[in-house]
Design a protein that fits this description.
With 239 residues, the chain is an alpha/beta fold. Helix content is 29%, strand content 26%. It has 7 helices and 14 strands. It has a 5-stranded mixed β-sheet. A 5-stranded mixed β-sheet has the order 10-9-8-13-14, sandwiched between helices. It has a two-stranded antiparallel ribbon with strand order 5-6. A hairpin with a 2-residue loop joins strand 5 and strand 6. The radius of gyration is 18 Å and the shape is globular.
Length: 239
C-alpha cells in the first residue's frame, strides 16, 4: 500500500530504447537517475512486432518495479502509433505500440522517436539544437528553444544521389570505410548547418565513437547512454 500511495508523486519510469541492432531497458528514479542495470539484448531478426514484444517481456523481468513506461522508437510516432520503421519490419507500420504495452503490462505508456528521446537528455533548451544519431540508420531530432519539431526523419531525406542514411548509416560506414565516412559526415554537417542554421549539433548513436573529424564547441559528441535518460521528458505533465 505504501508503494501505491507514492506512485503519483514519486513514479519510477521504465525507459525503453528500441534500436535496429539492440533493445535497451533501464529503470529511472523520479529524479531521472538510473536505479537499475542497463539491460540490452540484440534486436530480433526478423524484427517483427511479436518478436520484439516477446524480447521486451523477457528484459522486463530484470526490472520488476516501475510505475510508467517511456519508449524511444526508430521511426515517426503519432498518437502512440509507429508510422514508419525503416530498419525493423513492415509489420510496424501503423502499429499501436503504446496501447499494446499498456494492456500487456498494465502501466501507462508514452512514446516518441528514439532520437528525440535521447535529445531531451542533452539539449539546453536555447536556440536551435539538432540531434543526429549514427547507428543502424540515422536518427534526427530538431529542437527550437527546447520544443521538438516532430517527424523530421532527416535520414530519409534526399542527399547527394541517395539519402543521408544511405551514406551515414551502418550500410554507408561498411561500404565507404571510416575515413571516407567521416568526410561524408563533414559534408552532411555543413549541409545541415546551411539548412537549419543550428546553434548546436549533437552527434550520438553507436557509431559516434568512430567520428574522427575535428569540430568546434558548437558540435558535441554525446554518449549512447542518453537514449534512455531522456525518457523522463515524456512525463513532464505527470500529475
Amino acid at each position: 500500500m505504501a508503494r501505491e500511495a507514492s506512485e503519483a508523486t514519486n513514479p519510477i519510469t521504465l525507459a525503453i530504447d528500441i534500436g535496429g541492432s539492440g533493445l535497451k531497458m533501464q529503470a529511472l528514479s523520479p529524479e531521472g537517475q538510473p536505479i537499475s542495470d542497463r539491460l540490452r539484448v540484440p534486436t530480433p531478426d526478423p524484427a517483427t512486432t511479436s518478436a520484439i514484444l516477446t524480447a521486451l517481456d523477457e528484459l522486463k523481468v530484470g526490472v520488476p518495479l516501475f510505475d510508467r513506461v517511456s519508449i524511444g522508437f526508430p521511426g515517426v510516432i503519432k498518437q502512440g502509433k509507429t508510422l514508419t520503421a525503416a530498419n525493423l519490419d513492415p509489420g510496424w507500420l501503423g502499429f499501436p505500440l503504446a496501447k499494446t504495452l499498456e494492456k500487456r503490462w498494465g502501466k501507462p505508456t508514452r512514446m516518441a522517436n528514439d532520437c528525440a528521446v535521447g535529445g531531451y537528455a542533452v539539449i539546453k533548451g536555447h536556440g536551435v539544437e539538432l540531434v543526429v544519431t549514427l547507428g543502424t540508420g540515422m536518427g534526427s531530432a530538431l529542437f527550437t528553444e527546447g520544443l521538438l519539431c516532430p517527424g523530421l526523419e532527416l535520414g530519409h531525406h534526399p542527399w547527394r544521389k541517395k539519402t543521408y542514411e544511405d551514406y551515414l548509416g551502418r550500410r554507408g560506414l561498411e561500404k565507404y570505410g571510416v575515413k571516407r565516412w567521416n568526410k561524408l559526415l563533414q559534408r552532411a554537417i555543413d549541409q545541415t548547418a546551411a539548412t537549419f542554421n543550428w546553434d548546436v549539433l549533437y552527434l550520438g548513436g553507436g557509431n559516434a565513437k568512430k567520428i574522427t573529424l575535428k569540430h568546434g564547441s558548437n558540435i558535441k559528441i554525446i554518449s549512447n547512454e542518453e537514449g534512455l535518460l531522456g525518457a523522463m521528458a515524456l512525463w513532464r505533465d505527470w500529475q
